[in-house]
Amino acid sequence: MEYVTQYITADIKLSEFKGKLFKTEVMFEHHMLVWFLSGETKIIQADATHIFTAGDIFLIPRNQLATIINYPKDGLPHKAVAMHLTKERLSDFYARHPTAGKATPLKKIYSFSKHPLLESCLASLIPYFDLGESLPSNIADLKMEEAISILRSVDPQVDALLADFAEPGKINLTDFMERHYMFNMNLERFAYLTGRSLATFRRDFKKAFNAKPQHWLTEKRLALAHYQLAEKKRKASDIYMEAGFENLSHFSHAFKKQFGYSPQAIY
């Protein structure tokens, strides 16, 4: 198998991927703290693109749309340790360790660039993966508590994010969709992130764009792809995933149907 995930607790895992690349559209239910052992990851958000390599440590906020593309690198597989920081665990932590005051959470990816304290905390988990043993619950609690405490000390701004337990509220649908149309999510996810039921999302979408969501999404993604090919001179194989398509064949078929010529005709 090319992709393997090994858990030592329900919230701590080691993932390893040996294929050419692995791409997914995600919206994590929980904050995720990641430490790279090898390989490379590109994370594409509406406002930024991040590239992480071996040794990097970063925190991905929950309820944020992202395209994640994982690659092996330098002959080594894509391999990473990840901690899921659940709302339940964080709620318990902040009940015992209150924040100094109320602050607006920054919905961004926090990078900690090979921080020695975080690296030491996460490296201490590796023997359990090597032995194939579960982490005793009391040790797991201590390691998660240690990781949260280090995050707070390294970047005090992270408190505002980790101590925010609110669910997405109803937001401006037009602005959200214009910024996130390239993410290949189902309509239920788009509805949730804009604070709507699916029925209300469809109704509001029709009112805002005078189009059905799926038709509008396809046209927007193809327009983005055309721009990347014609203006940025990029290759179809490099941009189809970033434009929200599952595979190159589907992208090429949709592109030719929309424009009357294949993506390769632009080169």
UniProtKB/TrEMBL annotation:
Matching Gene3D superfamilies: Homeodomain-like
Q: Where is the HTH araC/xylS-type domain?
A: 171-267
Residue stretches in coiled coil: none
At the top level, the lineage of the source is Bacteria
On whether Transcription is a keyword of this UniProt record, the answer is yes
Keywords annotated in UniProt: DNA-binding, Transcription, Transcription regulation
Q: Name one Pfam family in it.
A: HTH_18
Q: What is this protein called?
A: Helix-turn-helix domain-containing protein
Native organism is Mucilaginibacter ximonensis
